[in-house]
Task: structure prediction
Amino acid sequence: MAGQLFLACIFLLAFQFGYQLTNTISDKEKYLDKNFDEFTWLTAHNSHINWLDNGVIELASNQNMSIDQQLESGVRGFMFDIDFSKCSDFESFFGTCKCQGVCLCHGKCSDTLKDGFSVKRLDYALKKIVKFLKNNPDQIVTIFFENYLNDTKSLQRVFKRVKYFNSLVFDPYSSKWDVLNKGWPKIRQMVDADNRILIFDDEKRASRAGQKPGFIRSRDFLLQNHYIWMNDYVKVNISDFEPYKSLFNTSSPSIEISRCFSLDKIENRPNWGLNSTLKMDEREHRGQLVNSKKLFLLHHYYGVVAKRIYIDPITVKLMNTKELIAERLKKQCNPALNGKKPNYLALDFINQNTFLNVF
Result:
């Protein structure tokens, strides 16, 4: 399993879309000798919002594969919404409590539980990730928290409770790695040290980030575009979409390709976008990586299935194709980021990708 999957998670930054399933020694050596930031890692948006893990109805799901299936299929980035949920005495007495403690919800747990969804504790997902990493010792996983917790203590208790989790965490602030000054290490170094989990925090509680056991303050090491799909129509060349030309009734179609602009703001304005280019040789704040060395998380999704009625139907069918992703990068993202390629490609319904032929 380890040999078969060691490249299954990776898109080369030349954007050779498609999985490379091989266990040859030479390919594995090439993988191990590349730096962490030389790859694009397939990432599942709201990976826990699926009917197999959380009992979410398909209409409201973001994925239709379980976390286990996502791991086996090559997903190496997991986006989790976490919040603290406390059961009432009534729920505890009658056994109707759906989740107590740090739970995997959709946004705040109070909203998720109110909608009638079943939810799991965070331990549930972390144990699956740890088990996978123990069975695949050359793999690396990144976790992105949309974090609604009021403090870190409850989260740190979860980490401590999940066997082996803390020992697997990669801490870029530590003197051992010192990514701010040394840059991103080679895969081989992370594998040899067995530090193979990265934890990015979205800074809803900024004081949390940078603390043990390895919270990474997103703005220090990450560039990311806004996740909102902006309904911008862009003319495309039909020849670029040859496998899908039956969907079009014109030789020069327009399809919906959302513009790319920064999720982070400076003085209440995006710090890069259509009318502003990010200065790649600068640091936005002291204690951050220079922009050119930051990892780039590309949010590329339109929301849950229910929202398809608001999206152009052709765009829905093309959303996860290599052609649409490449077109969006070329026309909407690269100009503002000087051609920087994504290190994380975040998608909904990761098995609905025509270029991921392993499914």
Observations:
- Residues 1-23 have pLDDT under 50 and may be disordered.
